[in-house]
């Protein structure tokens, strides 16, 4: 992946002003208690430029230079925690030849530049200061925001990045099949979640996000993640989940009958959502926007929900479908650099996830795939993950017979 990091840095450098330096921090570990830490989450923009997933590192770039600063290891740290990344490992992963220790990251190194680019992360939901914000406060420099430059380069995916997403989807498919083998009534939703987690743990990968395992009416809450209710016979159960591969995310939703068989009513509603899913995928091509894709879903639902007697007038669609059909996908599950009103271009990877949520019937259905925008249309990267009524029922029937 070091070639990919070099390509990404080269792309970003083209947008930098002359006599400027970009400084990107990998991020710090956060304390969870007096003697504990939360799992480290790398700044995805740093990872995009280096392919290194380590805390307390600093990348600096000018138009014609790049330096990576790393921590120097020590004997006591190695005994208690483990080895820190070495200069050789840093070069191997990032393809950055000039690797120095953080002790050399001093004010005179960056003080003579007219502009300093900092990754002013869009961190509206957290109160803790990021390393970039702290740096901005400590040194009174002319600061420009690197965030839009870097995220623009993340909007289109290279072949290597698409392959990583595809690898994550293969693992996700295996996890979903493990869930389907475990499905039965009177088990907690977390029981099925554990079967997905087992597959990821066995392959030493992390989930892209907290798994949603929502049975019955719970599936009408979009981000239900407590997963602590009992799945009942006759319920549908909605799974929204994904694995990662080198931090590149899969994001898949599938909805299954707990007992292996859809009822007539469930089939009617499921078919409507599946039709929406397939219509949107067929419509994807360069030039169309995610807003226009969402309009396809709404137009279909206006007709079908009336026919199925869910609504009495088309204005009520928003009561049963209340999210967009697509978002960008990559290093973040809801990836950056692509606006919903922006025309899609070759190399974008997006989700297609129509859903329907009918609380009065205890039904929530979502069917989500991951799609690559190609030169003339699209490629469904998750086509191998079964979603038709016939395929789901056949798979679950075969499991029960064994």
Q: Tell me which CATH architecture of the largest domain applies here.
A: Alpha-Beta Complex
Q: Strand portion, in percent?
A: 15-25%
Number of helices: 12
Count of folded domains: 2
Account of the protein in words:
The chain starts with a helix and ends with a helix. Helix content is 35%, strand content 19%. It has helices spanning 2-13, 44-50, 75-80, 87-94, 107-110, 131-138, 147-154, 159-182, 189-202, 264-283, 290-307, 389-401; strands spanning 20-25, 31-33, 36-37, 58-62, 65-70, 99-101, 115-118, 143-145, 187-188, 212-215, 230-231, 236-241, 244-245, 248-249, 252-257, 349-352, 355-358, 363-366, 369-373, 378-380. A hairpin with a 4-residue loop joins strand 19 and strand 20 (378-380). It folds into two domains: 3-155, Creatine Amidinohydrolase, Chain A, domain 1 (3-Layer(aba) Sandwich), CATH 3.40.350.10; 159-401, Creatine Amidinohydrolase. The protein contains twelve helices and 20 strands. It is an alpha+beta fold. The protein is globular, with a radius of gyration of 23 Å.
Concise synopsis of the structure shown:
The chain is an alpha+beta fold and 402 residues long.
